[in-house]
Description:
Elements: E1 4-8, H1 15-26, E2 29-32, H2 33-41, H3 45-52, H4 54-68, E3 74-77, H5 88-95, E4 97-102, H6 105-112, H7 127-145, E5 150-153, H8 159-168
Parallel strand pairs: 1-3, 1-4, 2-3, 4-5
Helix pairs in contact: 1-8, 2-4, 3-4, 6-7
Shikimate-3-phosphate is lined by residues 11, 34, 45, 79-81, 119-121.
Amino acid sequence: MKARIFLIGFMGSGKSTLGLKLASLIGYQFIDMDHFIEETAEMSVPEIFNEHGEEVFRKWEYDILHELCNKENLVIATGGGAPCHSQLMDFMNANGTTIYIYLPPEALTDRLIHSRTERPLIKGKSESELLDFITTLLETREKFYRQAEFIVNGINLRSAELAKILKES
Ligand code: S3P
């Protein structure tokens, strides 16, 4: 098994929940990139977007991914936008195993409708605006996400299934 497992996918695809369980199944340390950035910056993601702007947040994502790649035995839940910036998809593919957790826009909308305030990109959107936003953004992001080594269906996905994929790879 490679030294780093990157879970990638849209907001709400289950990267953090599955990543935590997967890490304990395979005996790796779990890192949630958003939390890591929040702890380092001592600010929440919405505060970072508000006070510094998205570009600075993307730069911090870049720096942290590079820093994490000096460490081993990690399961990393990446932020939904990280693979789509600064060639980070190539970087992750070169430094570990990438797994894209795919969910269709409707399922993502159902999951995200209750967590709009924690996520600056979808804050204040109505349900139909959210569905439109997700449909459009997912379309532009899929060309990055689909460069992952493994693509798995996120509906009813269990961490044991991810562990099996990794053990057989
Ligand atoms: C973002 C996803 C969020 C977080 C930030 C931006 C994105 O992470 O990094 O709000 O651009 O899709 P999650 O995918 O963990 O929600």
